[in-house]
Write a structure and sequence with these properties.
The chain has 67 residues and is an alpha+beta fold. The protein is built from 1 helix and 2 strands. The longest helix has 42 residues, at 2-43. The radius of gyration is 18 Å and the shape is elongated. The N and C termini lie far apart (49 Å).
Length: 67
């Protein structure tokens, strides 16, 4: 029974994380679009670049950022 309670807690947290991320991304999309437009008008280069980072257990991942 306790395994189910622990597993459901992780599942609910993951579900909340995904839902909250999508909600904030939707709400902030006009601002992010405006920032991307300003970067493109100012610099004429790529808007987003990828940076390699080291995460949990030394696993590398790409982080995408505005220039």
């Amino acid at each position: 029974m306790w395994k189910w309670a622990v597993a459901s807690g992780f599942f609910l947290k993951r579900l909340f994380d995904i839902f909250a991320s999508l909600t904030f991304l939707f709400l902030l999309s006009p601002l992010l679009t405006f920032i991307a437009l300003l970067i493109k008008l100012e610099d004429r280069g790529p808007i987003i670049f990828a940076q390699r980072r080291v995460g949990k257990f030394g696993k590398e991942f790409k982080m995408y950022k505005f220039r």
